[in-house]
Known about the structure:
The complex is a heterodimer. Chain A is α/β, with parallel strands linked by helices.
Amino acid sequence: MANITRSPWLLHYDGSSCNGCDIEVLACLTPVYDAERLGVMNTGDPMQADIFLITGGINEQNRPTVKQLYDQMPSPKVVVAVGVCACTGGIFKECYNILGGADTTIPVDIYVPGCAARPEAIIDGIVKAVALFQKRSDDYKAKVKEKKKAGK
Amino acid sequence: MGNRSVIPFGPQHPVLPEPIHIDLVVEDEKVVEAVPSIGFIHRGLESLAGKRDFNQLVYVAERTCGICSFQHGMGYCEAVEHIFGVEVPKRAKYLRTIWAELARMHSHLLWLGLLADGFGYENLFYQCWRIRERILDLHELTAGGRLIFSVNKVGGVLKDIPEDKLKEILRTLDEVDDELRVIRSVFFEDRSVISRLKGVGVLTKEQVNELGAVGPFARASGVRVDMRTLGYAAYPELSFAPIVSNDGDSYARCFIRMMELFQSIKLIREAIGKIPAEKELEVPIKGNPDGEYFMRVEQPRGEAFYYVKGSGKPFLERMRIRTPTFANIPALCEMLKNADLADVGLLVLTIDPCISCTER
Ligand code: SF4
């Protein structure tokens, strides 16, 4: 991770979680776990975010919101599904109002298990997301370079 | 008269991790009307009553809300136990009380932190959450989970807290007590906190009664409602009196929750002092629930109802939960009228909203 040139920013959105995973995501950002030491920062603005943490499953009402948040994020971006609800629908899978996990609506890169997902697991997910984000932005830069070369 | 415009608040916004959407009709900087719309986290949890039997439903009830998870499980279990007409062993009752009060402490600390964050006092936010981690460590020590600990079952509890762990709880609480005193002096004496909270969002006792608010929110306006006085779990054997304030403003709401933290410490100490040394932690449950019951418990956010109806089958006919935030939303909308736009985030916070249980 030493070659990261920029601090990836986090966006957190609560799909239809029971709150358990949300407050664990928040706990990750507070002093005891302090995910910010990894260079990430929490933001409320999707346009500035690079990593999207989503908790809870998808239902009809929040589907457009999730989709919109994802679309508003600039590429490259990474999506982390936190908790079994966001992974598969979890305990609420059979409820009439749950369509399933986050991957029913947006492409998910990293799945963090747990109910509630433990802060250690979430941080692990974030670390993986940071690495993936770095790789994606490197690829993107390489692509731009190639294009420039071809253009010359 | 200025121009009226509508400002959407949410669903994704910085004051709360949860999505709530309110349409604010504003005139210049004043809010004239607030129209809430909910449903972003509706899962249809109650419908699982037809798909899971009454024992499995404990775990579903616990996931109504991750913050007051324990009390949800407890409320549901007590309702079903009443249908069976069984009495839970005394030690189990005390254990439930200890866990319930620990959960209340973690919830109130969480709220105090969010409140501090809401008015921009970042340091205080981190301090509250740091202390909260100590309570979560106690959850983990005694039950194994940080937030959702699934120790309830219909008829009793699944785990015991042995003597040495009870001592550890007492020891940690002593330290937490000292740390809380420091934070309390900041919340009660700091000029910036006072100027941000005093006289903001006042609701009178009459308004609160009329709109049916519950919990610390109602107690801050002088209404003496606390379901713990009804005497479930081990509360009847502990010395307990609700904390009430008459000011009805945001500061009073902060005061009530702060004082309840100390009250919880006191209750846990007393419960640990009185806990009987029994082996039995559960009573055997035979057959299926037949009948209906209506249980009320006091959660960190106020009174929650559990209505359970069984018809002699393993699957319940109906489970219905009404949660405190749902009861507090009408009062919140009343409070938002005439508020400054800049105060809206803070005022929404003062009811301690828990949207995931409201929408279930
Ligand atoms: S995974 Fe568990 S704790 Fe997390 S949102 Fe779902 S039910 Fe709640």
